[in-house]
Amino acid sequence: MPDSCVALLRGINVGGKNRLPMKQLLDIAEQRLGLEDCQTYVQSGNLVFRAGLEQRDGLERRLEAEIEADCGFKCAVLVRSAAEWDAIVGDCPFVTEATADPKHVHVFVLTAEPSPDALADLASREFGDDRWHLGLHGLYLRTPNGTGRSKLAGSVERILKVPMTARNWSSVLALQAMLRPAGG
Asked: Which CATH number fits domain 91-175: 3.10.20.30, 3.30.70.1260, 3.30.1390.20, 1.10.10.10?
C-alpha cells in the first residue's frame, strides 16, 4: 500500500527566479511519475503525495530531472515519509517558541549529515539572539528577530557545507496535517 510522503523543492519561485507553477508540478508528479493523491502547499515547492516503496526509490533524482527537462533549471528535491516528517516535528527543541511564534522557528532539512569539523565551526560562532540545534532529523533554528535579519539563517548552509532547504514551523505543521490520511 502506498505511503504518504512530502517532497520539498529547494529554491523555486523565490524572487521571480526558478519559476514553477504548482499546477505544472502536479502534472509532473501525477502524469510523468505516477504519484497518487498529489497536493501542493503554498508556492514555495511543497508536494504531498502517496507512493509505494518501489516508486520512492530514486524519486528525488527523477523529480529533479523532470523539473529540469520541463523548466530548464536544476532544483534540489528532498523526499521524506510521513513517519520521517512526524519525527522532524517531534524532535523540535523549540516547541514553546514554535507554539508562540511559529514564523520564527524553522527546520532545515539536510541532504546529508554535516561533518564534525563543520559542526564545530558553526558552534564556534556567535549569532546574537538566534539559536540552533542539530537533531536526528534536521537543523532547527529559532530566529526571534526574523530570518531576513538573521546571520545564522543566511550562513548555515555555507558553514555546514551540506545542501538543505528550510520551512517555517507553520509550514511544517501544515505539511504534517496534509500527510495524515483523512480521519487519521
From this structure: 3.30.70.1260
